[in-house]
Amino acid sequence: VAEQFRKYMEENCHREEIEMKDVLARFTTDVIGTCAFGIECNTLKNPESDFRKYGNKALEQDLLLVVKFMLALTFKNVAKALGIRITDHGVEKFFLQIVQETVQYREMNNVQRNDFMNLLLQIKNKGSLSEQDAEQMAKGEAGMTLNELAAQVFIFFLAGFETSSTTMNFCLYELATNPDIQDRLREEINRAIEDSDNNVTYDVVMNMQYLDQTINETLRKYPPVESLTRVPLRDYTIPGTKHVIPKDTLVQIPVYALHRDADHYPDPDQFNPDRFLAEEVQRRHPYVFLPFGEGPRICVGLRFGVMQTKIGLITLLRNFRFSPTARTPKSIIFDPTSPILSPSTGNYLKVDKI
């Protein structure tokens, strides 16, 4: 998918400017489509594809949906009893049908692919990924139902395409407005790939230190999920105090506020990847950086999300230079209707082939 992305950018970089927000969302839609569903979505070539249409629709918010979502979040059992749905019927129907067709085709034709869908099919049919667990499951517990499998694939898709694309989008905005950081990052990328005989391997990608720092600084300044919610399973006394958080109380953790707190990050509005040098990270409390959450409920797609973000940025920065245009905003205004942190306007950048 990254190679298709590069070709798309080459074909379009002659234009005066490119709106990168939409292009990046199409790239991540194609990545998630092939890795989660095993389907080539081709939204880079066809921006009107059903995957793109229903992906956008799944993230649309209106007042009624917000009210239903808050009710489901706060009074889960009541919402279940009332049969409240927080996904659009058309979106649900589309993804369920895609999953049913894919599962049916793979099982009838014994198709094996190295993707999420293959892992989920093993759990559906055997109850587990390991043989030992499968034996235990065989003693009484079934695997996943088709609906449960569809729900897993849907959440991989929904949580994966928009969060990673907005992270890349914010990162490109900062790199375009900080050309010294962009040049330094490009040098690291080129050097690392040259040292591995021009092969982009997993190890090469994971060992680009400045790329890591740049993505972390982007996630600090623009965390896709601006606040987290957690619910204690039992009464919890906050250590060192007499304050008790009662069981089943919804607790909100303000990630955006922590990431912009000058006590932890001096001059928080400045984009500075060196905040994530190893020695700087050691000086800070580990829980003032929570772009993926933390603990047992940490984001299940953390590594996947970071990997596709890195691959996207490497593909772009190896081949293109980004700079602001007259339509590039001086500062980002966030879209108040978006469920994740997202700019209210497109990200128009000048793109020059290197």
Please sum up the structure shown.
This protein has 15 helices and seven strands. It has 354 residues and is mainly α.
How would you portray this structure in words?
The protein is mainly alpha-helical. 55% of the residues lie in helices and 6% in strands. It contains 15 helices and seven strands. It has helices at residues 2-12, 20-37, 50-58, 63-74, 76-82, 89-109, 116-126, 131-138, 146-177, 179-195, 202-206, 209-221, 255-259, 278-283, 302-319; strands at residues 18-19, 228-230, 236-237, 244-245, 251-253, 320-324, 348-353. The strands form three sheets. A three-stranded antiparallel β-sheet has the order 1-7-6. A hairpin with a 6-residue loop joins strand 3 and strand 4 (244-245). It is globular, with a radius of gyration of 22 Å. The mean pLDDT is 89.
Helix/strand structural class: mainly alpha
Report the major sheet: 3 strands, antiparallel
Taken in chain order, the helices and strands follow as HEHHHHHHHHHHHEEEEHHHEE
Query: Would you report the number of β strands?
Result: 7
> Roughly how many Å is the radius of gyration?
22 Å
Number of helices, where a helix is a run of at least 4 consecutive DSSP H or I residues: 15
- Into which percent range does the helicity of residues fall? 40-55%
Identify the overall geometry: globular
Widest beta sheet: strand line-up: 1-7-6
Give the oligomer, counting copies of the same chain as homo and different chains as hetero: single chain
Report the average pLDDT across residues. 89
Strand residue content: 5-15%
Weakly predicted, low-confidence segments: none
* End-to-end gap: 20 Å
